[in-house]
């Protein structure tokens, strides 16, 4: 699953973005990647690992909901029924 969120640009500042990716690894675990930064600038990447799919999806949704509350808007969603749906 992949979700790309972005803020609306304010004046001359480039927009900020958050990309959330949930992938299953070869051993059956799940990895949640959170990349954030400024368009065209520096970025930060964080990684969390989960053993259970439901736990990983819950973490994905928690990160997504927190970013939506901060004013980010969904620009791209892949692997979901919709930007707020569950697979």
How do the strands and helices of this protein lay out in sequence?
Elements: E1 2-6, E2 16-24, E3 30-38, E4 43-50, H1 53-69, E5 73-78
Antiparallel strand pairs: 1-2, 1-5, 2-3, 3-4
Q: What features would you describe in this structure?
A:
The longest helix is centred in the C-terminal third of the chain and has 17 residues, at 53-69. Strands 4-3-2-1-5 form a 5-stranded antiparallel β-sheet, with helices on one face. It has 1 helix and 5 strands, in the order E-E-E-E-H-E. The termini are close together. Strand 2 and strand 3 (30-38) form a beta hairpin. The chain is α+β, with helices and mostly antiparallel strands and 87 residues long.
Number of helices, where a helix is a run of at least 4 consecutive DSSP H or I residues: 1
Structural category: alpha+beta
| Fraction of residues in β-strands | 35-45%
The number of distinct β-strands equals: 5
Rg from alpha-carbon coordinates:
13 Å
Order of helices and strands: EEEEHE
Largest sheet: 5 strands, antiparallel
- Dominant shape: elongated
